[in-house]
Amino acid sequence: MRQESPSWRKAFLSFFPLALLWGCDRPLTRVAQPAPAAFREVSAPLPAPVAEPAPVTTPQSPSREQLTDSAITGRIKSAIQTDPGMKGADVSVSTDRGVVLLAGIVKTPEQTALASAHAQRQDGVMRVDNHLELPRT
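User: That's the sequence. What structure does it adopt?
Assistant: Structure tokens below.
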């Protein structure tokens, strides 16, 4: 198989663009076209500026994160209180940026696992810190 020399390639690549330019019979001048009507100047006067309304002041509302944390806490508390397996347990729930803290006293280790399961299955929960304790005897 024969290899072509690099000098032949260079000559072809430099000649080819020139051949395209020489072969084109179109003039290089550009014909100006009128601007579309949408871009032409408008002779009608502009309307008078409208004064901006005064900003509405509202009481400081809780952030979206706080609402989400409150909603998570409420759903977990509701699930724990309505579960018959959690009867007799005293569980407090708090949520901060998706991290749920479970604290309190439970009667059995199963209730500890059940409370964690209720917390983990809620949307928006990133982690569950379980500090539930069994009663001391």
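The chain is about 35% helix and 15% strand.
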